């Protein structure tokens, strides 16, 4: 009788733990969906001329551009920085590099398993578009992609020419986060 009571308690505890894990997972997905809606609204306000439109009251980032890859149906709001907190919600602009759509090397980073998972599908010649806050649309063509070490500085170097550099961790199917390798896609202005 006592053993049955203990087993019942363990069963109730396991069910409660399972419900808690499912609820936590659902919360993360609901939060991500809500964030995308709030980012879209913030982007529209940015395009309307407002400066530094935070998508939610305590956000430490804001939209600076919109990235699109027509062939793959990709459309993403680019955030003002590349901190881990920002990258949870979308690709980020790496501070110290040219703003998206400006002259120089604009570096955008995102997670390999979410916002930049599509990088593995990009082909040489694919069009990548950047829409700036002013409404200008810059068109780029994928020129090259390669795997490099995370500490290779050529990725962020600006040599004067305009380019768009997209960076994510590599390999794409790694189980561990934070590998020492990066997958880099370089796109140049379309002629």
List keywords for this structure.
single chain; 29% strand; Sortase, Chain: A; 8 strands; alpha+beta; 2 helices; 191 residues; elongated; 8-stranded mixed beta sheet; 26% helix
Describe the overall structure.
This protein has two helices and eight strands, in the order αββαββββββ. It has 191 residues and is α+β, with helices and mostly antiparallel strands. It has one domain (41-189): Sortase, Chain: A. A hairpin with a 4-residue loop joins β5 and β6. The protein is elongated and about 80 Å long. The model has no long low-confidence stretch (mean pLDDT 90).
Q: What is the topology?
A:
Elements: H1 2-47, E1 63-69, E2 74-79, H2 84-87, E3 92-93, E4 105-109, E5 127-132, E6 137-149, E7 163-170, E8 181-189
Parallel strand pairs: 4-7
Antiparallel strand pairs: 1-2, 1-5, 3-4, 5-6, 6-8, 7-8
